[in-house]
Write a structure and sequence with these properties.
single chain; DUF4126; 6 helices
Length: 161
């Protein structure tokens, strides 16, 4: 089955945005799309692993772990340098993979995905803190709502391909 992404820029913006909310979400979604829609453009690329069904399963397991780990009080803030770097790299990996698979330049996809992840990391962090403070709903509940939002948006991105 052929990959039907006609406007990869917007898909990569979406993936980067989700990476800022949940680190593993962007590579999970990109890998799911690419493992179901093989692209010859990735065949000889270092990004070819993103078309593997086994890698897609591994990302799904990591995503489930992240959903649980996000609710733990010991989990560091997403704006901490190491967490921020992981989110930027996640968005960059997803963006590079989608751009390369659709005939674009991987570095451009990485730049777009990483920049969207950077912006989304701060936006989602401060939004979540504000909602917790003003609504008086405990943080893990707001985190679960954020999970549902990421899953819903991710499913929509998958259906676009």
């Amino acid at each position: 089955m052929q990959l039907k992404i006609s406007k990869p820029f917007w898909q990569v913006i979406g993936l980067g945005t989700l990476a800022g909310m949940r680190t593993t979400s962007a590579p999970l979604i990109a890998c799911h799309i690419l493992s179901n829609h093989q692209s010859k453009r990735l065949a000889k690329s270092p990004l070819r692993f993103m078309q593997s069904k086994n890698v897609a399963v591994a990302f799904k397991v990591l995503a489930l772990g992240e959903i649980v780990g996000d609710k733990l009080p010991s989990t560091p803030n997403r704006i901490k340098a190491s967490s921020l770097a992981a989110r930027i790299l996640s968005g960059a990996l997803a963006g590079a993979s989608i751009y390369k698979a659709t005939g674009g330049k991987a570095p451009m996809g990485a730049l777009i995905g990483g920049a969207a992840a950077f912006a989304s990391t701060f936006g989602s962090y401060f939004l979540r803190k504000s909602v917790v403070k003003t609504s008086h709903i405990v943080d893990p509940i707001i985190g679960a709502i954020e999970d549902a939002l990421v899953i819903g948006c991710g499913t929509s991105l998958i259906q676009l391909s």
